[in-house]
Every structure is written in structure tokens, then in C-alpha cells.
Amino acid sequence: MPHHNQNQPWLNSRVNDIVFILSPSFASLLLVFLFPSQFQNTEGIPITYWVFLIVFIDVAHVYSTLYRTYFNPVNFKKQYALLTAIPLSCYIVGVIIYRFDGLWFWRILAYLAVYHFIRQQYGFMRLYSRNEKISPVERLIDKVAIYTATLYPLLFWHLSTARHFNWFIEGDFFSFKNDALLKGSEIVYMAIIAIYLVKELLTTIKRKWMNIPRNLIVIGTFLSWYFGIVYFNGDMAFTTLNVISHGIPYMALIWFFEKIKINKTTIKSKIMTLSFTKWGICYFLIILISLAYLEEGLWDGLVWREHLSVFKPFSTLPQIGSSELLSLIVPLLALPQATHYVLDGFIWKAKNKF
After folding, report:
1. Which residues 6+ apart lie within 8 Å of 317 measured at CB?
2. CA 276, CA 263: separation in Å to the nearest integer?
3. CA 52, 250, 269: angle at the middle one, nearest 5?
4. What is the DSSP string of 104-133?
5. 219-231 burial by CB neighbour count: b if 16+ within 10 A, else e?
6. Which segments of 208-322 does DSSP mark as H helices, in order?
7. What span, in angstroms and rounded, lies between the C-alpha atoms of 176 and 169?
8. Distances in Å between the alpha carbon of 70 and those of 9, 57, 66?
9. Is residue 68 over pLDDT 80?
10. Is 75 exposed, middle or buried (0-12, 13-18, 19+ CB in 10 A)?
């Protein structure tokens, strides 16, 4: 049956979805291609650009979860046990692991982050497929395609020669160099891309309609993960593609969903009212960036001491050298991240009343 009159399944509006959810993968890739010499540099990231990527986007997006949980009085009351148990459990487990081995703490956190990043792309694809009446085979092809878009580059990272970048710290990912397995996985990768494209072509001809946002999510994921990890081999390119294509859509999704819900509830906190009324987006971003700056400042003052020119208010803090004290402080500073990764598995479930 033709679907040429069917509307596209936008989450907010065509313009907002394209600008804030669908375009970041393509925009970040375009940025890398426009300035290849800068992005192929493996010597690090310029400090101003680092602040933009890490503080304004990467760490800030972690705190946007607060608007769906702790800042939201309805959700907090409804899920009090969960929202209390998760950070407490994450901290206790983090301390135990860090006391056992600091590298293993970062390794587990890195793989938890990877899982979170992968699931976000699958989640967006499901959201944009929510109204699509497709066969189980077509749905399976979509699912396999979106997971392949992320898993093949990660497999390449683990099986190929060393990448000139890390997820968190050097050595956080395992490495198993295996050219034969790498070649085989590349063939499977190309085959799945071909199957997805053929499926889309046939269904578009049959239905006289194409799900544009779902296809943009799938294509953008393939491009940003492939070029960020496989094609380019530099920290700046990887961080740009990884952070922009993940952080901006996540913050936008929180903003879209919570802005709709704030008008439907009678129980509102001051921070929610402030952040979702006129000019609320400004307050929303200022709060997130302020929290991100505070966290990164504490990291830099107490642990890393790498960007003290950016975090001058924290430069007088003593650098912690004691391994016992680090095992308490590092899991505490990483707690917003760990909580964000774990909580995210609960707050977007379709059956969840959030």
C-alpha cells in the first residue's frame, strides 16, 4: 500500500530534528574533511577546541540526564529507589575496582561508555521507526545495520595496529592484532551495508515513501564511526566525530521530551520551570556547562593538572598522589559519568513511564 502521504516521524519538528539530532554526524565529518591537516595531527587538541568539545558538549551532555531524573520531581518521586541505588552502587563498585587496579577502573568505564554510545544510536533508530509498519525481516536488517555501523569500527580498533587515540586513557581498550579476522569482518561489514541499501531501495519503490530521519541516523552512524575510528587515525578527528555526533543529539532529545512534558504536569521544580520556559534553552545550557566546568575543574585541580590555564579557580587545589585517596576521589569524580551510562539504560525504555 503506498505511503506517499505519510508524514515523517519527527521527534520535535523537521527543522529541529535535522539541525540538532540528524546533522551533527554529517557536520562534524564535514569539519574534519575541510581541515584535514589539523585533524590528522596526532599531537593532541588545541586547548580552546578541547574546552568546546569536552566541557561544552561531552561532559555537559552527561548532566542533561538530570532533567529527566533528579531535577524532575515527578520522575524522582516515582523512581526514588532506582535513582538512589544506582549512584551509590556505582560509587562503591568504582572504589573497589580502582583499589584493585586503576587501569581496570578506566577500562570498565570505557567499555560501559562504548555500550552507552552504541545503544544511543540504536535508540534513535527505534524512535524514528516507531510508526513504521515493516516486516520482521526488514526490522532485523535495520537492527543489524545500526549495530554493525558501530561494532565494526570498534572491532577494527581492537584487531588492527595501534590507533593514535584512546577512549579515556592509554591502554583502556584490549588489543588483539588479527589480520585474518579483520579481513573477514570487513567483508561482512560491506555485505551488511549492501543488504541495507538494497532493502531500502526495494521498500521505497514498493511503498513510494522513505523514512528520511531513520535513514539519516543509520547513514550518519556509519559515516561518523567509520571515519572517526577506521579512516582517520588521530585524537582530534576521533574526538570531534565521537563527541559532536553523540552529545548534541542527546541534549536535544532531553530538551525536546522534557519541554513537552513540563506543560503536562502540575508539579514543577524551579529549575525545570526556568529551563523550559521562554529563553529556557539558555538556562538549560548555562546550567549544564557550569556543572561540566565544575567537574572538569576538580579533575584538573586534584588529578590531571593538564589545563590549569582554563581552570584557574581550581589551580590551588592539591594534586592527589596517594593511591588510597585516589581510589576514593577518582570514582567520585567519575560518578556523574558512570551514573549517566547506567541510568540511560532505564530512562528511555518504551514501557517506562518517564
Report:
1. 298, 301, 302
2. 9
3. 100
4. HHHHHHHHHHHHHHHHHHHHHHHHHTTT--
5. bbbbbbbbbbbbe
6. 212-225, 235-262, 270-275, 280-299
7. 18
8. 29, 20, 5
9. yes
10. buried
Residue 347 pLDDT greater than 90, yes or no? no
- Burial call 184-208: b when 16+ CB within 10 Å, e when fewer: ebeeebeebbeebeebbeebeeebe
Residue type, 218: V
Q: For the purposes of burial, counting CB atoms within 10 Å of the CB of 263, is it exposed (0-12), middle (13-18) or buried (19 or more)?
A: exposed
Closest CA to 105 of 345, 330, 344, 337: 330
- DSSP classification of residue 313: G
| Residue in the block written with cell 586513557 | 169
Could you tell me the pTM of the whole model? 0.91
Judge whether residue 4 has pLDDT over 70: no
Residues 6+ apart with CB under 8 A from 254: 64, 65, 67, 68
Report CA-CA distances (Å) from 111 to 167, 210, 291: 9, 34, 24
Q: What is the mean pLDDT of residues 328-336?
A: 97
Query: Looking at per-residue confidence, does 254 or 260 come out higher?
Result: 254
350: pLDDT strictly greater than 70 = no
Q: Which pLDDT value is given to residue 351?
A: 46
CA distance 95 to 102: 10
The Cα 235–Cα 166 span in angstroms is 8
In angstroms, the Cα distances linking 341 to 40, 230, 323 are 30, 25, 25
Grid look-up 563498585 returns 93
pLDDT band for 268, please (50, 70, 90 cuts).
confident
**Burial (Cβ within 10 Å: 0-12, 13-18, ≥19) of residue 351:** exposed
Provide the pLDDT for residue 43: 67
Which pLDDT does position 89 carry in this prediction? Answer: 97
Distance CA(224)–CA(242), nearest Å, equals 7
- Grid cell, residue 347, equals 530512562
**What residues contact residue 334 under an 8 Å CB cut-off, 6+ apart?**
94, 105, 109
Distance from the Cα of residue 310 to its chain's centroid: 24
Single out the residue of 217, 115, 119, 96 nearest to residue 167, CA to CA.
Answer: 115
